[in-house]
Structure to design on (715 residues):
């Protein structure tokens, strides 16, 4: 769940800007007219979003008029060039277009999550004749619920959310599965027994990922600890790198991450340590350091759903795909990983595909020692998507 | 606090502060001439993107840095034309510059996404100096962008306060009509320093894309241009204070994670807020203190800042 992507710089920056205009001259009105959508969220960042989204919106509008094709649209929270989360969705969109030539799939990037911006965007897309509209960030949830009510004939698909309606489906992938495999690699490769984890926001998607990764680590190396730092941002290359360095400074020799950029990998590469990518295959950003990337291939789902909408067989639902459905994977391992570890990862991957291995199988204790999943029990999908504790072996806490 | 490696954390702080320092120094030069350019974020992004692209094309990071300087100056030239020659409101023009710059950087940066930098400024310990305990690892085990900023700060200070052209620059910013009467070209000076400032801001962008994060990603600056806008005021338009301010910002950024790693029970939300809180507190404090001394607010700002200068013929 990608919640509140740009929250962190937000209020304070607009505050800064305001202070400035007050300090320097009484030009508040002019400022406001130049940057209409900057109002509520991050000054610098959202100002940007407006232009880019604005440009894209014009493209969408002009192509919409052309015609006969089945029109679908994608709304992205970040830039398609983030090299991570949004990049992965964009790759899937390209595959969708290649697979279904009669489909015209447009996208808008950098669409802010605040209701005033995103609701207007979804409404406009629905009015322009798009039949299926995908929103790829948690924060679009309520705006999509509202817009879906107004356009009963348009199918809405919301990534990482949990509110559904007759024409609003939700979808998510089992990110924890490849993260568990990454944990096995980390547990085998660490020499200091300290593994760092750069995490974005303490939401279930991230917390559960840390847990699965740690379960993987501890399954092969019960002495290893996973140290977590929270950046409270999805996208800030500089800050994420500083966070990664702090973990390296604390003795971590392997870094994992749940962020939208490859900064963690770069920090590891510079320090001569190892790291994992996230969301997309990030190897090119630090080939020496890159052990592997847990990544998601959304295209099977997108192709299925758009096909269904074209055939009239589309139904609402909550999709939660994993290895079995072929929508998540761990990229090929770095050549420094020993063959026996590679073999082990392949076996576990096969077991996850076959459904014979359950990452969250008990017993699982949290890092205060309380038993969370009893021996023989496991987590249901509803529990997985609401997980709110860090497991034994995690050195860190959930920020309050 | 026992677990915190203070030296390494401070070294991270210097890395984090350097891009902001370049942008702040650039904006100080520009504002000293009386031109307010809020387009820092856009110029940083364009500089970072162009520098990265040039390095990708030529394989030479020095050419990349030169291109980032030119790119920042080129964007600043647009601002200078609109505000100095035509008299467009400087706030409006500056904000537009951010929008335009971000768009240009994103658009032309598309094909660069996913490439690693062909060449970049790697950490280059200075012999002897880097062996000094504490100071060595913090200040002298860095990349060339950091070292150059060490030279730039005193150089700019000397230039602004101790040289004739620096005096002229300040005169134009404080009282353009007086400077004009003295025979200083107000328009020429404002063009020159808007361009020079823009070049430094562009280099600040390159210090990310060719230095600390050697690759190109959209919005790689993530708001640091705006931080620099605030730091200019914090610095009271003085390069030394900019140095302090930029490292304070970098230090806050670095220490929030060291504290987390050490398990200090402070909310990470609160820590994350600190750099900005500090900036605002510093702004308030400087304003309040100045008022106290001189009886009028904002006296540290060049008096002609933000105002269009139009020479009037004497009747």
């Amino acid at each position: 769940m990608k919640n509140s992507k740009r929250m962190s710089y937000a209020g304070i920056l607009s505050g800064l800007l305001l202070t400035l205009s007050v300090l320097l001259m009484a030009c508040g009105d002019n400022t406001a007219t130049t940057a209409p959508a900057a109002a509520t969220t991050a000054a610098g960042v959202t100002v940007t979003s407006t232009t880019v989204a604005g440009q894209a919106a014009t493209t969408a509008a002009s192509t919409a008029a052309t015609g006969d094709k089945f029109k679908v649209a994608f709304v992205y929270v970040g830039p398609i060039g983030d090299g991570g989360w949004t990049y992965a969705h964009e790759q899937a969109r390209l595959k969708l277009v290649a697979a279904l030539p009669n489909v015209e799939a447009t996208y808008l990037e950098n669409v802010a999550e605040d209701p005033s911006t995103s609701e207007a965007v979804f409404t406009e897309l629905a009015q322009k004749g798009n039949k299926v509209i995908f929103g790829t960030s948690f924060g679009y949830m309520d705006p999509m619920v509202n817009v879906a009510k107004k356009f009963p004939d348009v199918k809405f698909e919301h990534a990482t959310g949990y509110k559904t309606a007759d024409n609003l489906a939700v979808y998510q992938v089992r990110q924890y599965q490849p993260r568990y495999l990454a944990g096995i690699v980390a547990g085998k490769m660490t020499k200091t027994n300290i593994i760092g984890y750069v995490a974005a926001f303490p939401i279930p998607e991230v917390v559960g990922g840390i847990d699965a990764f740690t379960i993987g680590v501890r399954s092969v190396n019960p002495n290893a600890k996973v140290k977590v730092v929270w950046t409270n941002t999805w996208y800030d290359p500089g800050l994420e790198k500083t966070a990664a360095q702090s973990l390296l400074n604390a003795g971590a020799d392997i870094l994992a991450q749940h962020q939208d950029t490859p900064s963690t990998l770069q920090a590891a590469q510079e320090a001569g340590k190892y790291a994992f990518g996230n969301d997309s295959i990030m190897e090119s950003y630090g080939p020496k350091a890159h052990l592997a990337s847990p990544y998601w291939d959304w295209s099977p789902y997108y192709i299925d759903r758009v096909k269904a909408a074209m055939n009239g067989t589309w139904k609402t639902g909550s999709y939660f795909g994993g290895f079995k459905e072929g929508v998540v994977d761990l990229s090929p391992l770095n050549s420094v990983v020993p063959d026996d570890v590679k073999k082990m990862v392949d076996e576990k991957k096969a077991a996850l595909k076959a459904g014979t291995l359950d990452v969250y199988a008990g017993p699982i204790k949290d890092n205060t020692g309380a038993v969370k999943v009893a021996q023989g029990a496991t987590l249901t999908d509803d529990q997985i998507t609401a997980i709110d504790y860090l497991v034994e072996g995690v050195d860190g806490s959930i920020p309050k | 606090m026992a677990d915190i490696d203070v030296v390494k954390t401070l070294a991270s702080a210097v890395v984090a502060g350097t891009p902001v320092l370049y942008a702040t120094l650039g904006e100080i030069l520009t504002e000293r001439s009386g031109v307010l350019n809020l387009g820092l974020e856009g110029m940083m992004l364009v500089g970072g993107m162009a520098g990265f692209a040039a390095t990708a094309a030529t394989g030479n990071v020095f050419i990349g840095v030169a291109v980032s300087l030119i790119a920042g100056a080129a964007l600043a030239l647009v601002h200078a034309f609109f505000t100095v020659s035509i008299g467009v409101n400087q706030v409006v023009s500056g904000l537009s510059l951010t929008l335009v710059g971000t768009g240009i950087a994103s658009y032309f940066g598309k094909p660069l996404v996913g490439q690693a930098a062909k060449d970049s400024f790697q950490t280059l310990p200075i012999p002897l100096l880097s062996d000094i305990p504490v100071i060595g690892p913090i200040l002298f085990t860095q990349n060339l962008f950091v070292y150059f900023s060490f030279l730039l700060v005193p150089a700019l200070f000397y230039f602004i306060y101790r040289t004739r052209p620096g005096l002229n620059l300040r005169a134009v910013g404080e009282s353009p009509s007086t400077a004009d009467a003295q025979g200083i070209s107000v328009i020429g000076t404002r063009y020159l320093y808007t361009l020079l400032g823009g070049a430094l801001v562009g280099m600040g962008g390159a210090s990310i894309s060719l230095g600390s994060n050697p690759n190109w990603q959209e919005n790689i600056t993530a708001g640091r241009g705006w931080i620099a806008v605030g730091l200019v005021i914090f610095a009271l338009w003085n390069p030394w204070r900019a140095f302090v301010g930029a490292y304070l910002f970098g230090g806050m950024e670095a220490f929030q994670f060291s504290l987390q790693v050490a398990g200090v029970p402070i909310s990470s939300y609160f820590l994350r807020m600190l750099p900005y809180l500090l900036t605002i507190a510093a702004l308030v404090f400087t304003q309040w203190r100045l008022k106290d001394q001189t009886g009028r607010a904002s006296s540290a700002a060049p008096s002609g800042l933000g105002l269009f200068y139009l020479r009037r013929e004497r009747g």
